Predict the structure.
Amino acid sequence: MTRLLSTSDHSRDSAALTYVYPVVSRRSGGVSIGINLNINNACNWRCLYCQVPELKRGSAPPADLRLLGEELRGFLEQVLHGDFMARQVPPEARRLNDIALSGNGEPTSAPNFAAVVALIGTIMGEFELIGKIKLVLISNGSLMHRPGVQTGLREMAKLGGEVWFKLDRITPHGIQEINGSRQSPQKVRDHLRSAAELCPTWLQTCVFALDGQPPAPGERAAYLDFIASLAAQRLPLEGVMLYQLARPSLQAEAARLSAVPSQWLEIFAADIRARGLPTKSA
């Protein structure tokens, strides 16, 4: 019996392909075709809530453009002209919403990231999807200074794409504790500006309790101050995408993570809006 996809199962192996995998996405509200460039399970960050098995530090290898192209064309044919939706997608989610560069690590670490974006754009054109679905980059934002990444973002903007830029914490301690990164708040600001000026950009913030406690008052205040400063500087952001944990972490800290109370999240969202940026939840 064919297993229906669900928002709680984002297996990269569901289509038995190397780069391409389908998911029913909470954040996109339909079927998202994922592109996993980090087929070696390597990332330059180590987030406590990461669902990648056997995660290791590192970068994505160069993508095999021929294979990626074959897989994406073949899978789009199944989704748009075959019986994939009827076989594997719940009735309420049977629409193609986006193609998402996401997967098992930081996608912009692939050396040929710009060529990947160009290839996806070509294939979207072949299937007459430009302007009908989004091309989304889900990124920790740490490599936005690279010329090849910026070339890819410019191409994404031409395709009507958008960036979902991770921002879980903004103090040096918080970034290190939650994301396993030593990136400074100023670097986050610089990279965010680069992304937002090249392609429509949402902040994406994962909200959860650690050891039973929501983000500490100091972390919460620093985050809100940062949001206020972005709005005051008129950084061209789309807003903030807030989401809770939907699938279990596969990192050693998994047992320490839990959901925050819904009222806490509602108040947090209202405080973000009061500082000048819209919010949406997923």
